[in-house]
Amino acid sequence: MEIKKTQAAIEAILFTMGNSVEAEKIAKAIEQDTQTTEKLIHDMMDRYLEEDRGIQIIELDHCYQLCTKREYYETLIRIAKQPQKIVLTDVLLETLSIVAYKQPVTRLEIEKIRGVKSDHAVNKLVEYNLIKELGRLDAPGRPLLFGTTEEFLRHFGVQSLEDLPVINPMQVEDFKSEAEEEIQMKLQV
Fold it and tell me: Residue 65's domain spans which residues?
């Protein structure tokens, strides 16, 4: 298969599937090895950028997805009329951070870190498709385990969890000190 036809086949796969597709699956479908397939996809990604198209191919943890470019979001809003806009409150961001850095994590572990019930926050993040159930912990009660989704990676513009910022240990100590001071102030009131 010539390169243009192979890339057209990749484009058709990504368009039809809608969600991200593993490089290995694409390679099997176009009868190429994974390395060649990834090179073809990266060439397509570069070409889409050069041609200033409205679509792009993004990579998410060794999977690829065809999607629109962010700069056309306002145009899409006008046509879609009521797009679902995710509003991440401080509580949701705090809960999401815990899941992202501690996954797989149970609701109880999240609540232990936050110091408050987190049912609503966890449910909202599942509804927004930013976290998902990964299974159950092999422990009494078999609590659910939660982790982040591909939508989380897409929403925050990272290719994998390894791309998340590393937390400076000094900052962690500062956060702990601030939290302890806050607790002391509340106790005095």
Answer: 3-77
